Structures are given as structure tokens and as C-alpha cells.
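[agent] plan:
  1. take the single chain provided in the ticket
  2. run structure prediction with default settings
  3. attach C-alpha cells to the ticket
  4. add a short note for the reviewer (M.T.)
[agent] executing step 1
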Amino acid sequence: MQASIDQQSFTSSKLDLLDAISTDPRLSGSDFRVAFRLLQHANAETGAIFPSQERLAIQIGITPRAVRSSISNLVRFGWLTRSRRGRGCNAYCFEVRNINHMLDRLTGLNDQFREERLERKKASYQTPFDRKETSSRDRKETSSKHLKTTPEDNSCSEINEGTYPRETIPTDHSLFGPWIRLNIPDPTKHRAALRLLHEGKMTPELLKRLAA
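[agent] step 2 finished; step 3 output follows
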């Protein structure tokens, strides 16, 4: 039973890592494919990875030179460490410190996409006259707000609380990020919460535990 749990945890960790790597805009498609194949060679108990570059090239269908280039990119951007194993062989180990950073970036992109979608939807229901009046009113309100308030007063907490009630567990993927940040103060628990939401396993009891 314990072996099954360990294997499940190992597989889940690999999926989290690949998910984060796939959102890194600095990496190419070939870089991701090399990372995927390297992870497929990872030892579940030790984490050791040491396939030859020629073997990776054959599996992916690219040249050994392209494999070396992708490995160098993964090392340079902090996803992979490389060491000599002896007899001209390399050993590799993946780093997980970038996962939370990429998760936060993805959450921010989802927030931006959602806001832009709401703005487009709102604009589609306005006449040209309404849009002109709204734009003029927004400029006046923004100018007045900057004169009367300090930067610390510029908070969107009330909007978040109104949009994402604490007692409601979202099913829309675009709402996951804001909901997690609103309900779970500890950033180290955000990745686990996101996985539970994606799998549809989040419950009020689990939320209470993560928010504690």
C-alpha cells in the first residue's frame, strides 16, 4: 500500500513539474520534449536520471546536438542540474523551486484574461454614446481618487470578496487563481489547492485545513 502511495506521489510531482515547465515562455517546444523524456527516465526512489543524449535524440526524433542545446536551456533557466557520472556520462536532477513562480505567473495571466473578457462583454452591451459617457466618467473618478487617496487605499479586496464568496468552490478554471489567493493565505499550499480544484476534489473540509 505504501509503495502505491509513493508511486502516486511521484507521478503527481512529475505532472506538477511538467505543468510548470510548459508555462515557461523562455523554453521552446523541443526543450519541453527533452524535459518530458528526461522525467520518464527518472528513478522513483532516488530521482536519478542518466539517459545518454543519443538515446534521448532517438526517442524524440531530433539530433544529439539539439538535445544538448535543450538540456543547456533547462539548466540555464533553473529547471535542471547536471553533473558528471563517470566514463563521460551525465546525471541530471530536476529543480522544483521555479514551480510556485510559474504557478503565480499562470494565475496572473488567468486573472488578466478574465478581466479582459469581462471588459469585452461589458463593452458589447454598450452603445457608442454609453461608452463615451462611461469613459469620461471613469477619467473623472480616477483623477478624483488619485487626489483624495494614498496608494495604500487602492485595494481590490472588496471586489474579490464580492466576486469570489469564501463558501463557494469554483469550477471555472479561470477563477481558481483568485479564489486560492483569497481563501488560502499560505503560498506554499497554493499548488496543492490548485491540483485539488483541477481534479474536482476540493471540499469545504479540505479548504478549512489548507486555510488554517
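[agent] step 4 note for reviewer: The CA atoms of residues 71 and 82 lie 9 Å apart.
[agent] ticket updated
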